[in-house]
Every structure is written in C-alpha cells, then in structure tokens.
C-alpha cells in the first residue's frame, strides 16, 4: 500500500469549506455504517456504550464500506456541479451498510421508509434493522433505494453497468468493482463491454476498480500486480486507466490529513468526466460528417485505499486496517475491552459535529446532497418507474399456414425471427428493444432481424466484415461469446425499463444458473416493495435443444435449466414449451408484453411438423394445456389411455405413437393432450397458471393411464403433479442422460421417448391390451431392433420414421 496520496492528473483546487463539508459527510456515512453493523440502541452515543447497546449477533461487512462511502460523497459533488443523472452500481455487494447510510443521509431513505426518518429514533431503527431478523440484508439489496444490483454473488457489476447504459444517453453509470470481484470469470469477460457502447446514443459507464488489497482471508491478485502490469492489462481491454492512490490514514487523524485525499478524488472525477464529454463530442462530429465513429479508449479509475479504511489499526495486537481482518466484522467477541474500543472507534468520527441534538444531519451537510430525483437513491430509472411499452405488430399476420395438421414443416424459430424483426423495426425510434445472445442469432434462425438491425460492434473491421457479417456501430443485436455478459446486459436493460430477448443453446444456458437465481430473487422481493414498479420480463429462448443435438453429442444435451427455474417462486417464473411455429408466435407476443417475470421458452430451430392454425394456437396457449380433438378419438366417451406431451419432439413422437396404436387397435380410445404452459400442471394453489383439481381430472382423468412424453427430465412431471388424484397413473418419459453423436430418432430411442417405446408402454398399461396386444408389442420391439441395425449401416434414420406425417 502506498504511503502517500497520488493522483495521475493535475490537482484541482477545492475550497477549504467544501473540503471540510465533504470530509464530514464521509465521516457521517462511516459512522452510520459502523452503527448498522454493531448497534441496537444508543445511536448517538449520548451515554457510555454498554454491551446491551450492541446487537447479540454481529453480521455485515466493513472492509469495503468506507471506500464506497468515499466514492458516494464525491459522486454527489459531481452530480450537483454537472447536473448529472447517476446510477451507482456496487460490485462489492456486501458494502450494503454504506449504500443504506448514504440513502439515509440524502433523504431518499425516509421518503421510501417514513418511520426511518433522519432523527435519533430513525437512526436507531436504521441501525437495528440491519442484518436483523425481519430486517434488511447486509448486502445491497432490493430494499436499498437506488440499487439495481444485488451484489451478493460477485462478477456482474460491469455487465450490469453497461446494460443500464445502453439506450440511456442521459445516464452516467458508476460501476465500482471490488478487487476480489475482479478475479471472477464473468467480470473478466464483461470488461469487453466497452466495444459495444455507443458514445452518443448510450450513456456513460465509469468503472472504478477499488483495490483495497484483500478478500475474506487472502490478498487479491490485481492489488498485487505492478502498476505497469495493471496498466497494460486495462489498456489491452481498451481503457485509459487513471490512478488515485490514497495514503493510509489512521482512524483518529485530523481533517488536514484528509484534504489531499479529497482533492485527488475530486480532481480525478472531473478529469474523467471531461474525457467522457470529449469522447461524445468527437463521436458526434464523426457522425455528423457521415464517418464511422472511432472506437474510444474509455476512461476508468483505479483507486487504491486501505481495506477497513478509517477503522481501528489493530485489535488485540493484531493488524486490522489495511488487512483481511477488516473484511467483515472487525471484532465480534464483545468483551468490555471491545465495547470500549467500539466506542472509541465510533466517536473518532465526531458524531456531535455531524448530527444535531435531534439526530438529524446538520443542515450544512444536508446541502451537499443533490435534490429530488437527482439523488442516487431516488433515481427513477432503477426503480422501474420509466418503463415504456413496446410497440407490437400483430403476431397473427406471421401465421404459418398449412392444409392439414402434421403434414407441413417449417423452422419454428425462423418464423419467430420474422416477428422479432418487426418488433425491432417498430421500436427503432424509441430504442426500447434489443436481442442478446452468445454468437447464436443466426444459428438460432433469427436471421431476419438483420434486415432491420446489425450486430453491435465497435472493434476493428476487416473488409469482408462490411458485406457479410452485419456488423454495425448502431446495431441492436448484441452478440458476445459469454453467456454471463449477455445475461448481465439484459438483466440491467430490463431493470432500467427496456425490453429484450436472450437466445441460447439449451445445454449452455446453465452457465448463468446462479445469475438467474439472483435475478429471480430480485424480482420476487421487489414485487413486495411498493415503490418499485414492475419491469419488463427477462425472456429466454432456449433452442438447439436436447433432442436436436445428435450431431454435437452428449456434452450438448441437457434440458435441466427448466428444473432449475421451477425451483423459484411461482409469482416470478413461467415455462413455455410451444410445439410448433404458431404456438411459438403466440407465446412470444405474450412474454414480450409481460412484466416482472422470467419467461423460459423452449423451441426447436430445425424443420419440424406443424399442427395448429393461428386461431387454434391462440386458444391453446390461452388455456396452457388442452385436448387436440383432431388427434383424439375418445369424443363422446371415456378414453382408454391419455397420450400427453410437452415439447416439440415429444409432441411428434406422441402423435406418431398414437398413429401406430390407432392402426393396430382401431377400437382403442385415445385422448391426446398437449401442454404448452408447463406451470398449468401445478395445482392452482401453487402457481397462478395452475389448474384446479377438477380441471386437471377433466383433462387427464383421475383413473386412466397417462403416457406423458416430456421435453426434459421426466421426474419434473412427477414433481409438478404429485398432488393430483391420478398421479399414480402418470408415466412420464423424457431425457434420461443417454445419447451421443447419432441420428435424431436414435436420440429419442436411447432415452425411451420414441414412438415405439411409447406405444409399447400403452400396451403394457391398458388392461385390455395386456392380453390381446402381444403380437403388436413384438412388432414394435422388432422395429427398435431394425432401427438399430439400419442406422449402423446407413448412418440415417429409417425412411418410415424420417418421413412420417400425421395420416388422418
């Protein structure tokens, strides 16, 4: 750690009066932060601190907090002097006490939580609620005004910052990256987001890499690199790094020792803001001249401070400040000596000079904060208060038409792409819609969107790129081969009120499992916070799915993201398995209009049979599950068996099995049920889309065998239906972790989801066929043997399988 304050640009002169006030404001934020971690009562220390004033369980993180507070007070000055709209993203998410403290100081907190006002009683409630049962979490959470970044899991600060800046030209997004966070893979990829930021049409992102040297119990890598190596690293990422290296003060130093620290930070922030303004002006001049924009070298700040800055240097003879021991609670064994040390620490901030007798922040300090929605904690953009509806074309006009169900084929996601092309076109002026994906837009058959938008690109061009690859500095298709970065961009784009779709190969969406967790929990929690408004849903298209990954092999086969998603609260998640193009179009329109959900849509991109007209598709999707009359022969009576399915390939195999059974057993009564909204299988008490028991029994019966062909892992069907009357009669088939490089039909065969195995299952479970169906059963077993021999010789599926169509 450097022992002197250094700034890599010429120093600015601030007035002595402003320096004093800014320092006191920082002291106030630090005081409130320590108080939140430790105190249950006696908030202003008007009496000697006692053990009963301290919380019984001490939770929270101190180490990063004073640095975050320091940045916040300097951000306030910048906002006021330059009339900025600023979002503050806190990568070190467990710096929660600092962001809460600053929201309280600026007055945002009491506007959202009137009982926690700026008074002694309000301060006591502020302290008590922190990391307390039924209170607020220790990290920057949905309950924190001004936040849109949970930060509990590290790695997403930069991708969230850029996602918030896209199409938000009036926003400055301050992204503080902790040096522990900087070691994560998602963060490493997200630094490349600067190659996607438009200097004129998007907002400014200012990353601040906060190097305080330590993680929970180890040094951090970036803090131990030489300045030369660190500079080269970020220059390689395309940034111009500026350094603010702050000396190591003790918690009881006088104000004068801090003056150069505040001067250095203020100077640096003014410098980078001037650089950002100059970048925009230069880009605007190039645009006006009809020239391509020269990719900027975006500024960033690398700020070194001690970990646990302004806290005790030692406790019980062990180093604390500027060491990993300050990471969480510097001392938690509250002996009388430690209680006295805590009082000394808190009084070093001189609370009597910061707060008046009533506990309110002194007026001279109140005036440092911006006013109204200019306050970071009151920015409406991060509270969902600026969402605009999409202009939506009529999805019905994209209908794929055919003469008979199950006889014509198309690529369902290609039809979806035509619809999304026009969504993109209709919202071009409002800049309210983007598509995200890891290098898969064309692969997933969304090619038509390139008719109205290119792929965002500010890196270098080769000559061939200009004619063949749709690269565009003003593109609205976002492609980077990092699922983490795509997810982070879209999350923030949604949270700041805009709409999008994320397409991904089904097996590799698992890369962002934990990011989905965080976002789903954010949506669940914010549903219960009245000052946060519903934001556009996060929409996934999962394609290149398990049943059409026969060419890539076993590693590419995994439909388990659905299982992961349904673990989350019912008011947040939706899962759709449209069986054909028209149902996919209906679902797409629905999810783009929805608010505050995570919508998972699984659909195929390969040519596949089509079943429902648009009118039928709309009705079917509205119900979520229903009988396909044209595929059933039980009308007017009871079925002998219910053939159920969910998903594109399972639907085809279930229909083909139905065909086989009807050929060989004309008197067998089969009811064909398709499920497009997976959550309808749950009881209505468990999910808003769930069916009542009466509806479920009417559809599936309570006592007949149900053969359920499912897109994913079969046990999920049992998990969703275990409380139903006829659950013991449901026999689900799906992916059972079998398969490799083979043929499309062999994929379903090895997972026992194929038409022959489904038909055999019916023979085995329908009582009247158990005695009469032996010969037919043997034929189906022989077909499976024939299939195995045929693919081994020809490398392709049996013609009767490959060319099958619905015959009725």
TrEMBL record:
SUPFAM superfamilies: Thiamin diphosphate-binding fold (THDP-binding). Its cofactor is thiamine diphosphate. Keywords: Lyase, Thiamine pyrophosphate. Coiled coil: none annotated. Residues 605-806 form the Xylulose 5-phosphate/Fructose 6-phosphate phosphoketolase C-terminal domain. Residues 15-385 form the Xylulose 5-phosphate/Fructose 6-phosphate phosphoketolase N-terminal domain. Its EC number is 4.1.2.-. GO terms for biological process: carbohydrate metabolic process. GO terms for molecular function: aldehyde-lyase activity. The keyword tRNA processing does not apply. PANTHER family: PHOSPHOKETOLASE-RELATED. HAMAP family: Phosphoketolase. Belongs to the XFP family. This is Probable phosphoketolase.
